[in-house]
Amino acid sequence: MFLFTDKSTKIKQRINNLISKTNKLKMKRLSLLILLKYISMIRKLAKEEYNNAADLSYQVCMECGISDFTQEGIETFKSFIYDASLMNELDLYGAFDNNLLIGVIGINRKRQHISLFFVQPKYHRQGIGKSLFNHMMNDCDFTKITVNSSTYGEAFYKHVGFKKVGEGAFNKGIMSIPMIKE
Q1: Vertex 46, ends 44 and 51: CA angle to 5°?
Q2: Are 152 and 64 in contact (CB under 8 A)?
Q3: CB neighbour list of residue 166: distance below 8 Å, 6 or more residues apart
Q4: pLDDT above 80: residue 39
Q5: Rounded (5°) CA angle 88-51-152
Q6: Rounded (5°) CA angle 104-107-109
Q7: What SS3 class is residue 111?
Q8: What is the 3 state secondary structure string of 35-104?
Q9: What does the DSSP assignment read for 133-161?
Q10: 10 Å Cβ neighbour count for 24?
Q11: Which of 3-12, 43-52, 60-69, 135-144 has the lowest mean pLDDT?
């Protein structure tokens, strides 16, 4: 009887281990599916969508980065994002949640420079900005890229490998920190 109990205990332990491993695999699979959902909702924007990207950029800027702008800076920023000829020089990529634009990155390919990068605040710290950045970098195949970061975005850019190449300064009313990723 004692041997039978010992064997059944070992069998129960093996079954529990298998269940535990199965649950871990299910959780990993679920995490991958969630990640794929975010990745699959990132795409290059059509020119017709640029106004939506400009609206999102302005909204997020006023909510999160307003401390980097003087009144002149706000006008400078608005005149840039709502100028079709300037925006058409950029390639814009968008992140979507059920067809709603929640993040945008705009790059000037010729200059290898990020001109816009905004994610709606309620989606911050969910990997969307990083996924958006990585998607753009994979699509563009840059060897280096620059940005004039806001003080609000500086930590993010450092997190994805950028380094400061100068001190922050106001230019046309907008505080920016020159950074590069090589």
Answers
A1: 110
A2: yes
A3: 177, 178
A4: no
A5: 90
A6: 150
A7: coil
A8: HHHHHHCEEECCHHHHHHHHHHHHHHHHHHCHHHECHHHHHHHHHHHCCHHHHCCCEEEEEEECCEEEEE
A9: HHHHHHHH--S-EEEEE-TTTHHHHHHTT
A10: 10
A11: 3-12
Total residue count of the chain as it appears in this document: 182
Residue with tokens 């109990």: 5
Question: pLDDT (tens digit, 9 = 90+) per residue, 113-153?
Answer: 999 999 999 999 889 999 999 999 999 989 899 999 999 99
Q: Residue 176 corresponds to which tokens in the numbers above?
A: 């920016």
Mean per-residue pLDDT, 101-122: 96
pLDDT of res. 70: 95
Cα 43 to Cα 93: distance, rounded to the nearest angstrom? 5
Question: How far is residue 139's CA from residue 26's CA, in Å, rounded to a whole number?
Answer: 31
Q: Is residue 57 a contact partner of residue 69, using CB atoms and an 8 Å limit?
A: no
Tokens of 145: 């890229």
Task: Determine whether 94 is exposed, middle or buried from the number of CB atoms within 10 Å of its CB (0-12, 13-18, 19+).
Answer: buried
Q: Token digits for 24?
A: 């871990």
pLDDT over 90, % of the chain = 71
